[in-house]
Amino acid sequence: DAKTTQPPSMDCAEGRAANLPCNHSTISGNEYVYWYRQIHSQGPQYIIHGLKNNETNEMASLIITEDRKSSTLILPHATLRDTAVYYCIPSTSGTYKYIFGTGTRLKVLA
Amino acid sequence: NAGVTQTPKFQVLKTGQSMTLQCAQDMNHNSMYWYRQDPGMGLRLIYYSASEGTTDKGEVPNGYNVSRLNKREFSLRLESAAPSQTSVYFCASSERLAGDHNEQFFGPGTRLTVL
């Protein structure tokens, strides 16, 4: 399983883009990159996932480098409600395995 | 849809007591999971059930047992609680175990303290 490295914390001004990096240099070819977030102590919430191509949905964009060794989650216009812990999780298609690291604690500032 | 529900929300046990955490989902999902989260840590998988009638160990199964009662319900049992099991327990479900996308839906958690 790929190991991930994320900064422990980040701040972002409200209304600005939040760019959350994740290093997953040992990711294998069949591992997707999933992003989840956990607001306060609620259950984690799915944000987005991708394999090779960049992805966008109504919540965020995911940029994956060509060598797939790192990715960046982009929240285009952060709001106070985006304050949460964000987890980057490589996961092999067809398995149950999610290895949650300690994530990045994002604080959106008014 | 209620999604994934867990009971109880809070529980305090004494060392050696037993209890069962209940989880139910109304999304007709095949797969269900139990995680624990210790303070300042990420979630760790205890057990999972790929489909009704099957269960498998995750990363930290010791001290726990599970039952997949039916497609909707997946319970976690602590036979003899220990202080090291003080944690927040999350149940989750997903549409299917295999395949391209395995988005997991999480419940609100059960906060367990073992004295």
Write up what this structure looks like.
- The complex is a heterodimer of chains A (110) and B (115).
- Chain A has 110 residues and is mainly beta.
- In chain A, 0% of the residues lie in helices and 47% in strands.
- Chain A is built from no helices and 9 strands.
- In chain A, the strands form 2 sheets. A 5-stranded mixed beta sheet of chain A has the order 1-9-8-3-4, with no helix packed on it. A 4-stranded antiparallel beta sheet of chain A has the order 2-7-6-5, with no helix packed on it.
- In chain A, strand 6 (61-64) and strand 7 (70-75) form a beta hairpin.
- Chain A starts with 8 loop residues before the first strand and ends with a strand.
- The relative contact order of chain A is 0.35.
- The model of chain A has no long low-confidence stretch (mean pLDDT 91).
- Chain B has 115 residues and is mainly beta.
- Helix content of chain B is 0%, strand content 50%.
- Chain B has no helices and 11 strands.
- In chain B, strands 2, 4, 5, 6, 9, 10 and 11 form a 7-stranded mixed beta sheet that branches. In chain B, strands 1-3-8-7 form a 4-stranded antiparallel beta sheet, with no helix packed on it.
- In chain B, a hairpin with a 5-residue loop joins strand 4 and strand 5 (43-49).
- The relative contact order of chain B is 0.33.
- The mean pLDDT of chain B is 92.
- Classes of the chains: A mainly beta (110), B mainly beta (115).
